[in-house]
Amino acid sequence: MGWDGVCSMLHKSHDNLYQYHSVESNQEDFETSSLPLFFRNQTPIQSEEIRDTYGNSPFAAYLDGCSIVNNHADLLSAPLAALCLDLQQSFPHAYVNTYLTPPSAAAVSAHADDRDVFVIQVMGEKNWKVYADCPIPYPSHHEQVGKKGLPVPATILEKNPLFDITLKPGDVLYMPRGYVHEAATSVSEPSFHCTVAIATADWSLSTTVTEIVKQQLESHTNFRMAVHPQFGMRSSNDIDSKQKDDLSILLKDAVERITSTITVESVAQSLGLKYKTHNEYVQSKRERLIVNETDASDSLDSNPSSTIVGPAAARRVKMTTKIRASTDQEKESAPHPVATHGRGLTVREETCDTLLMILSILRKVGTSIQVSELLNSLPAANEEAQMVCDLTILSFVKCCVELGAIALA
């Protein structure tokens, strides 16, 4: 995929955020699962701050030390869409979430998931700690420790981890459902990894039987009626005997219906319908994405835009792109930024001086330079420069091109 491929997906996230926040967009009808999540210091950032501080730009947020999470990224990236279509041959259903984390950061704190996942390290590297004891075996959605206010037991984190490993590009880590884990980047390397999610909690026998029972009972009027208010408001001894007899008859009828309904065949049929529904919903979207991304790439290559500053130009910035300092006239032609704080870019303190140095170099050079060469053009590495990676520079250049401070050569 490469950083250019990662950036392509981030641009789509940027577009989704812009559409969501636009005046014309009806937010109630918007599919919010397509929106990226931003985390700073393991804390989620609200959508209004994403718009006002970062102008909806994942690149601007990344420069400020934010991690970017895209759920259902297989609906944003053609390679990930193709991966999930292939995995459907082996698993009932699979989808992909992606995590982009800058150097010296962690997206989220220690937690456990309600699904089995395969962690695929794509770019950079990340250190993972996986703990041996499973606090809640095979958790359901509301039992995920480390999420939604349910704490990870201190006894879990006090013990030495079962695994303490660093994943590098091409490495795959299987994370069984319910195991507590945490991950962080080093001071000098960012990370982009994909988690292929296998939603095993949705396929558990308890979930499947519950769904079958609910469907069976709700198909009959008697079981849809409210239980008489005496039950629950009075002690059992004070409830009218006729009410008890009536409920007992209903319960006997319910048990007989359930017993005859819950079979191996009905469980298989219910799961099969669930798999089919999920896969049919996303399959056409994935296939269309693959075709459209190929067409868009061909169109971009054959019809390059004449714009050299602004959002359209920023989309075309790659590691191989040549850039230069913009003129005053070019700066004026760039669209007004969406961010409302009026301070330009907000970047991490640890990288600020190095990034400013890049602008200074571009002004001094007076000619074009390739984005990939910028890192080598900096003075001898110092402690701050360690945190300036290829993606940091690529994100910085994209933001500066969008704002008009840098132009395409």
Note the topology.
Blueprint: H1 2-21, E1 37-40, E2 43-44, H2 47-54, H3 58-63, E3 67-70, H4 78-87, E4 95-101, E5 116-124, E6 126-130, H5 154-158, E7 163-167, E8 172-175, E9 181-184, E10 191-198, H6 205-218, H7 221-224, H8 230-233, H9 241-261, H10 264-302, H11 311-315, E11 322-325, H12 328-333, H13 349-365, E12 369-370, H14 374-377, H15 390-403, E13 406-408
Antiparallel strand pairs: 1-2, 1-3, 3-4, 4-10, 5-8, 5-10, 6-7, 6-9, 11-12, 11-13
Helix pairs in contact: 4-10, 6-9, 6-10
Features:
alpha+beta, 7-stranded antiparallel β-sheet, 3-stranded antiparallel β-sheet, 13 strands, 43% helix
Rounded Rg: 26 Å
Mean pLDDT: 90
What is the count of DSSP helices, taking H or I runs of 4+ residues? 15
**Topology as a string of helices (H) and strands (E):** HEEHHEHEEEHEEEEHHHHHHEHHEHHE
The SS-based structural class is alpha+beta
Sequence stretches where pLDDT stays below 50 over 5 or more residues:
none
Distance linking N and C termini: 25 Å
Strand order of the largest sheet: 2-1-3-4-10-5-8
Description of the structure:
By secondary structure, the protein is an alpha+beta fold. Helix content is 43%, strand content 15%. It is built from 15 helices and 13 strands. The protein has helices at 2-21, 47-54, 58-63, 78-87, 154-158, 205-218, 221-224, 230-233, 241-261, 264-302, 311-315, 328-333, 349-365, 374-377, 390-403; strands at 37-40, 43-44, 67-70, 95-101, 116-124, 126-130, 163-167, 172-175, 181-184, 191-198, 322-325, 369-370, 406-408. The strands form 3 sheets. A 7-stranded antiparallel β-sheet has the order 2-1-3-4-10-5-8. The protein has a 3-stranded antiparallel β-sheet with strand order 7-6-9, with no helix packed on it. The chain is elongated and about 95 Å long.
